[in-house]
Amino acid sequence: MLRLKDIPPEEMPEVVRVANELYEKDRRRAEQDQERRNYVDAAEELGVPPEYMEQAAQELHRRRVAEAEVKNRSKVWKSVAIGGGVGVLTVFLMMGMFTVRSVETVPATPVQQVAQAQPEFLTQVAPETFDAGAANRWTFTMNPSTRATTTFEEEEGLRRGVAVIRVEQFGTTGGPHRANFESIQTPPSLAGKKEIQFDLRGQGLKNIRVYLERGQNERWRSPELKIPSGWQSVRVPLGNFQHQVHSGGRWRTRGRVRPDQIDRVSFKLGDFMNEPSAKGEVRLDNVRFE
C-alpha cells in the first residue's frame, strides 16, 4: 500500500483534496448521528419509549417502499395504455381484478444544526452571574425546527451580565419543541442545600421549569414556574422537586425524594411549558444553591 512518504510532491495537492473529502464525510456523519440523538431525546421527553422510534423507522421505510411500488405499477399501466392496451385495462378495472391503493406520503424531516458550546467541568463556588466566561459553562439546545438564540448581556444596575434566551419561533416538525438552557457547573454535593435560587424576568413566554439531572436516567423536576415581566428572585425548595426515573422507555415519577448529587441544571422552556405558538425572551441571573 502506498504511504504518504512515497507520494511525489507534485501529487500532494490531490492528497490534500482527498483528505478533505474524507474529513468532511466523517464530520457530516457525526453531525447526523447527533441530530438523530436529539430527536430520540425529544421523544423521550414525551415518554415515547426508544423501541417505538425503531419501529417508526421501520414503518416509514415500509410506507416508502409501498409508495414506490404504487408509482412503478402506475408507470407500467400507463405504458400499457399508450401501447394500445386501454381496452384490456378498462375491462380489468371494471371486473375489479386489481385495486391501486393510495399510500400516505411521509415527507422527509428538515434538519438544521443545533449549535452547542462545550462546557468546562467547574465547581460552583458562587452565584452564576454570567460573566464573559459563561459561554464555556452553559449550553443551549433546541430541536432542529425551533429558531432561538442565547446571549450573555450586560444590563444596567446588574453585576457583570445576564443570560438572555430569545425564542423567535418554536418548531414541532419531527417532534416536540424544545429549548433548554443547561450547565454542568454544579456543586459536588447538595447536602445541606435547601433550595435553588435565581433572578428571573421575561416577556412573551409564560412558564419555565428547572430540572436537576443525574446521568441519563434520573432527574428532579420543579413545579411549573410563572415568568414575571419584571425582575423577581425565585426560590424553589429542593423538597418541591419531583423525583423521576427513566424506566421501561419512559419517565416515571417516584415521589419527592430530595436530590443529593446532580451533574446538570437545566432550565426548560419548550413542550409542557409553553405552547408551540409562543415566542419571546427570558432573562436569568444569579443562579445558585443555598
Entry summary:
With 290 residues, this protein is of the alpha+beta class.
Taking all Cα atoms into account, the compactness measure Rg is: 27 Å
What is the overall shape? globular
Low-confidence stretches: 88-125
How do the helices and strands follow one another from N- to C-terminus? HHEEEEEEEEEEEEE
Terminal CA distance: 63 Å
- Quaternary assembly: single chain
* Count of helical regions: 2
Biggest sheet statistics? 8 strands, antiparallel
Q: How would you portray this structure in words?
A:
This protein has 290 residues and is of the alpha+beta class. 28% of the residues lie in helices and 27% in strands. It is built from two helices and 13 strands; from the N terminus they run ααβββββββββββββ. Strands 1, 4, 6, 7, 8, 10, 11 and 12 form an eight-stranded antiparallel beta sheet that branches. The longest helix is centred in the first third of the chain and has 46 residues, at 50-95. The protein is globular, with a radius of gyration of 27 Å.
Please outline the helices and strands.
Elements: H1 12-45, H2 50-95, E1 138-142, E2 147-153, E3 162-169, E4 179-183, E5 195-203, E6 207-214, E7 218-221, E8 225-226, E9 232-237, E10 242-247, E11 250-253, E12 264-268, E13 280-289
Antiparallel strand pairs: 1-4, 2-3, 3-13, 4-12, 5-9, 5-13, 6-7, 6-8, 6-12, 7-10, 10-11
